[in-house]
Design a protein that fits this description.
2 domains; Nucleotidyltransferase, domain 5; globular; 336 residues; binds zinc ion; alpha/beta; single chain; binds 5'-O-[(R)-(carboxyoxy)(hydroxy)phosphoryl]adenosine
Length: 336
């Protein structure tokens, strides 16, 4: 009978984003105001600047999202907001804003874990997605393998012990002078390079482990660059980028296949900013085809931070009547 419209709000890092999602499947509007240009000159996100930018933009981003959906607050069933993990100042802007809007509209507030949000981006482009499923979540701050048995029912099988995949990509890109955020620049540079020009290490850890470690490969690349610099040699940036990307993708693919073997999960999904990587998508497409595993991933815009994925996670929270309390707080270190 009545449509369930959820407004999703995301402000955990450097994007101010809001989206209106109808019945968990129709994305009626999606606004992303990116601060990348502002932070680019510092080579990374400056937290204090990020929270100020969120304060400046949140209200207009939400208004634009509502206008795009031809709605008013009264048409919404609930408001979903990221409350962690992320930068505390940035999270607080979204949480305080969402609370005020939901309270004034007399509708439920839905508190969303940003990492769950990333995974739920998969339900936006495929609402028929079936459990059980395995998710490879790879972002700027996290690298997780998660086994889902149902909505909100999951088990973390492995996670990174040091750097996240995206973090390693960003740091190497910065040293190569490629730009921020590094992932897309590494991917672009790698297109012109030889992925076997350098043999960078692949940390597999103990046999059977589903954990990751990317600080070793990052250091190996940085050492290669430093020693070339000291010898006055020039490196082929494209070859370094291609070999480094290959090393990261190799480990992600091998660990994901091991997790598929262990769980016998019939479906694999990708999530997080690094899930936009074309090499990772291609390698996993081939590997899952060979094994008869269903594989899907969101379009790039739904891989990086966005409000639509928060609305998607919020929709299932709303169905479960799992509302957030009015004293919901930001939790910067929230995990899965
Ligand atoms: O999920 P996300 O937008 O923010 C976090 O929650 O961290 O992920 C950002 C990360 C950055 O490290 C960025 O370099 C990486 O995702 N990234 C990529 C690509 N696009 C973004 N990494 C590899 N290939 C890409 N095409
Ligand atoms: Zn994210």
């Amino acid at each position: 009978n009545k449509d369930i419209n959820i407004l999703g709000i995301e402000t955990s890092c450097d994007e101010t984003s809001a989206a209106v999602l109808r019945n968990g499947r129709d994305l009626l509007s999606h606004i992303i105001s990116s601060q990348i240009k502002t932070h680019q000159k510092y080579g990374g996100v400056v937290p204090e600047v990020a929270s100020r930018e969120h304060i400046l933009h949140l209200q207009s981003v939400v208004e634009e999202a509502l206008q795009g959906a031809k709605m008013e607050f009264g048409d919404l069933a609930g408001i979903a907001v990221t409350y962690g993990p992320g930068l505390v100042g940035s999270l607080l802007v979204g949480v305080a804003g969402a609370k005020a809007m939901a309270y004034a509209a007399g509708i439920p507030l839905l508190g969303i874990n940003h990492l769950e949000g990333h995974i739920y981006a998969n339900f936006l482009h495929d609402p028929e997605l079936k459990f059980p499923l395995l998710a490879l979540l790879v972002s700027g701050g996290h690298s997780h393998l998660v086994h889902f048995e149902g909505h909100g029912k999951y088990q973390v099988l492995g996670h990174t012990r040091d750097d996240a995949a995206g973090e390693a990509l960003d740091k190497v890109a910065r040293t190569l002078g490629l730009g921020y955020p590094g992932g897309p620049y590494i991917q672009k540079a790698a297109l012109e390079g030889d992925p076997h020009a350098y043999e960078f290490p692949r940390a597999m850890l103990e046999p059977g482990s589903l954990d990751f470690s990317f600080s070793g490969v990052k250091s190996a690349v940085l050492n290669t660059l430093n020693s070339a610099r000291m010898k006055g040699e020039t490196v082929n940036v494209a070859d370094v980028a291609a070999s480094f990307q290959e090393a990261i993708v190799d480990v992600l693919v091998r660990k994901t296949l091991l997790a598929l073997e262990k769980t016998k999960a019939p479906t694999l999904v990708l999530a997080g900013g690094v899930a936009a990587n074309t090499s990772l998508r291609k390698r996993l497409t081939e590997a899952t085809q060979k094994r008869g595993v269903a594989f899907s991933y969101p379009p790039p815009v739904l891989c990086t931070d966005n409000g639509a994925m928060i609305a998607a996670a919020g929709y299932y929270r709303y169905l479960a009547k799992d509302y957030a309390p009015w004293n919901l707080n930001a939790i910067p270190g929230l995990n899965l």
